[in-house]
Amino acid sequence: MPVPTPHKDEPKADYISRCMHEVSKNPDRSNEQNVAICMGAWRRHHGIPEPKKGEEDPREELVKVLEKAADYIEKGGQ
To answer: Structure pTM?
Structure first.
């Protein structure tokens, strides 16, 4: 399954939520792996280099993304 591409002017949180909904359909990956896939796709699309180790706490980002994804799924993907 391909990773979705960010839409023009789509907020990061909205894209990550939408991406997580799609990539989490693969049961062979963990949520951390799914977040990494979506964050990497966001960065590549916007030309943002990968952060150096220690620049970003992935656990904080993961919590935000999972909360947003849960809201998205509860609303039926709308």
So the answer is: 0.66
